[in-house]
Write a structure and sequence with these properties.
heterodimer, A: 220 residues, mainly alpha, 8 helices, 83% helix, B: 488 residues, 77% helix
């Protein structure tokens, strides 16, 4: 049972790294949001598994937040925003897909080397979780710097944050995990609202809500 | 006095959190902006008084593992609540003008005042927190409130500045959280699972038993994460925009307080690292980033065209000096670092009080359009000039004392580091004087409308900085010496 628990945890955490890579090569906005929803689903599975293994019922709350908010509410909201603002086209990248993937592999190798070495004495489930979580964090950062578009930067930030939740839940018995995941959700809500205002500004050169109303009025 | 303090029906630490929290709730509901400004000032004054009470009464050591007070954070709290109070006085004056010219509406100001108190709540919480997770949450809250205030003018540039601040601040905060998790992982086998492994006072006692490799990695993340919030180069990109585009009272609070809170978090973790002899020494990393910030900011001061951006870069420069001082360590450098931090907070906020006024009377922040202020507005012009002289490190102001201490102690210990350090100081000095002599002297470009201004908070700050440069009271010296010893 112990080794199965370990393997399953590693598989889920490894799955997150894989999905992070998938985020890197998406070129269409809608596909990007789909993959992000998948990222959140894998995170919530992983957290739920930690809740079972560690016998820590409060982690179920975190898993539930991840599932409802990040896999459903935020992707849906972002999609609506993207459609309404008419930016659901291609994603312009700063660096090409190929070099980005190579960089990403380098980052994963780096985080494995650093964490497996640094946390050599920690218990194996936490050690590998941390290494994989760091990979997810670094890939999220890579995504943020390699995209210009605000919505894909947000997706990058949210995947980065998923990596942090993975790390926090992997650290057995860490207090405040639920509180921190709530704090992060607030942060994300702010980002989404921020983008909304920001994109509106780009489009109408104003964040006057009147402009939004006018726009709606013209369309409907 | 102590007997009297023991009779207090409340803990000053709780008051420091409750006052701004309650005030924020009230301010959001109060419709009139004049009343709001008055309540804001009153609440800030109460917070400052509560902070002074910490000198006579501290909570029982590690009573619950959430809040604690020691000689180090008392300095930050008292300084922070003092600048918070004087800035609220300046702000009440400032916003009156913004309402007149229609840049802000009363509704904006309800929001603004609420956020102001929410920010002081977050900063007090961050400074008093014993739990490193709680400290992280507080810094995040402080970031969010300032992001909202930076974007309050809702112009193109303001939103862009807020967005940049938000994204970079969030990445910083995320890295800091990863570092915090790693510290927990390092502490867990020694202190035990759960809440105790995040309580700083417990961690620092047992830090010598932690896994040093894990601590090393943790510190790199914490340094990058909180370092972003301190504004150290090359992680500073958010800082000039946020300072330039937000309301000036917020620029004063950002420079005078928020940077200090992030620095405080960094110092706490530095103490943790220093308690473990096998871990890598945190000093050199701080020295390197500090020196880089100093030189980079000193060079970037020269091409500046916007007066608020100019002083934002000057803040990066001074945070670099402070990080350098604490990175050097030892009783003298730490003492100089503490003194410099205090002086910088007071001087920089005073400068922003003046700059805010200048920008309002002149209607512009462009350096090229600001000329001959000492002629057109003698009181304001000379005040600004005095502030700039102080921040540039001219005697007899307090910043001269701290920089002098730092330079001499660095020459004695690491002459090779002292050379680039002095070079950076001179570069920055030249840039500030060159830019500001044009603003202060020369012929006014055009007649500005006369505007009655209250400069009381400004002169109060400058008087304190001058007094510190002339004569430091013995109890203060003893206090700072003690803290410098604590910092190692």
């Amino acid at each position: 049972m112990q080794s199965f628990a370990l393997d399953a945890a590693h598989m889920l955490a490894g799955g997150m790294v894989l999905v992070s890579f998938m985020l890197l090569y998406q070129t269409r906005m809608s596909a990007l949001l789909d993959v992000f929803a998948l990222h959140a689903v894998v995170l919530s599975l992983s957290v739920a598994w930690q809740a079972v293994v560690q016998d820590a019922p409060h982690l179920w709350v975190t898993a539930l937040i991840a599932l409802i908010l990040k896999a459903i509410v935020i992707p849906v909201a972002l999609r609506r925003m993207v459609v309404r603002l008419g930016v659901h086209k291609e994603i312009e990248t700063v660096v090409g897909i190929g070099p980005t993937m190579l960089l990403g592999m380098g980052l994963v190798a780096l985080s494995l080397v650093v964490m497996l070495h640094a946390a050599a004495e920690a218990d194996p489930i936490a050690r590998e979780d941390l290494a994989l979580a760091l990979s997810v964090v670094l890939l999220g950062m890579l995504m943020m710097v390699s995209r210009h578009n605000a919505v894909s930067q947000i997706v990058g930030f949210m995947s980065l944050e998923n990596g942090l939740i993975l790390a926090a839940t992997g650290a057995r018995g860490m207090p405040l995990v639920v509180e921190i995941s709530v704090a992060f959700s607030v942060l994300i809500a702010f980002i989404v609202i921020g983008v909304f205002l920001f994109r509106i500004r780009e489009r109408f050169d104003s964040v006057d809500t009147q402009a939004i109303d006018d726009y709606r009025g013209n369309r409907e | 006095m102590n007997e009297l303090a023991a009779l207090l029906p409340f803990e000053p630490t709780h008051a420091l959190l409750a006052i701004p929290a309650i005030a924020a709730a009230i301010l959001v509901a109060v419709p009139g902006y004049r009343l709001g400004a008055a309540i804001n000032m009153f609440a800030s004054l109460l917070s400052f008084l509560a902070a002074l009470l910490l000198f006579v009464r501290r909570p029982e050591a590690a009573a619950d593992g959430y809040l604690f007070v020691d000689d180090l954070n008392i300095v930050f709290v008292v300084l922070g609540t003092f600048v918070g109070f004087t800035t609220s006085v300046f702000s009440s004056d400032y916003i009156g003008h913004e309402i007149e010219v229609g840049r802000l509406t009363p509704l904006h100001l309800r929001f603004y005042h609420g956020m102001y108190q929410a920010l002081s709540f977050a900063m007090n919480l961050g400074l008093l927190a014993d739990n490193i997770g709680l400290m992280w949450v507080a810094v995040e809250l402080a970031t969010l409130t300032t992001v909202l205030m930076v974007g309050i003018y809702r112009t193109h540039d303001a939103l862009e500045a807020a967005w940049k601040y938000f994204i970079l601040g969030s990445v910083g905060i995320a890295l800091a959280l990863f570092g915090t998790i790693l510290v927990y992982m390092a502490a867990k086998p020694v202190v035990g699972e759960g809440h105790d492994a995040m309580v700083w006072t417990l961690l620092v006692q047992r830090a010598h038993e932690f896994n040093p490799r894990l601590l090393d990695v943790a510190f790199v993340f914490l340094m990058l994460g909180y370092g972003t919030k301190v504004g150290l180069a090359p992680l500073h990109a958010w800082l000039p925009d946020a300072h330039a585009e937000g309301p000036t009272p917020i620029s004063a609070v950002l420079s005078g307080l928020l940077l200090n809170v992030a620095l405080y978090a960094l110092l706490r973790f530095k103490m943790l690292m220093a308690a473990n002899p096998a871990a890598v020494a945190p000093g050199p990393l701080m020295v390197a980033l500090g020196l880089l910030s100093l030189i980079f900011a000193a060079l970037m001061l020269w091409p500046r065209r916007d007066i608020k951006r100019l002083f934002a870069y000057s803040s990066i420069e001074h945070m670099g000096i402070i990080a350098f001082a604490f990175g050097m360590g030892g009783p003298i450098a730490n003492f100089a670092g503490l003194l410099h931090m205090t002086m910088h907070s007071l001087t920089k906020s005073a400068i922003f009080f003046a700059v805010g006024r200048v920008a309002q009377v002149a209607g512009t922040q462009r350096l090229a359009d600001l000329k001959g202020l000492t002629e057109s507005h003698p009181a304001l012009g000379w005040a600004l000039l005095a502030g700039v002289a102080a921040i540039a490190g001219l005697p007899p102001f307090g910043i001269f004392t701290s920089e002098f201490l730092l330079v001499t102690s660095t020459f004695a210990r690491q002459p090779l580091l002292a050379i680039p350090f002095v070079l950076g100081l001179l570069l920055a000095f030249g840039a500030l004087l060159a830019k500001l002599s044009a603003v202060a002297f020369g012929k006014p470009v055009r007649r500005y409308p006369k505007h009655p201004v209250s400069l009381v908070p400004l002169w109060l700050h400058l008087a304190l900085v001058l007094a510190a440069g002339l004569w430091l009271p013995d109890p203060l010296v003893a206090w700072f010496r003690n803290v410098a010893r604590m910092l190692g």
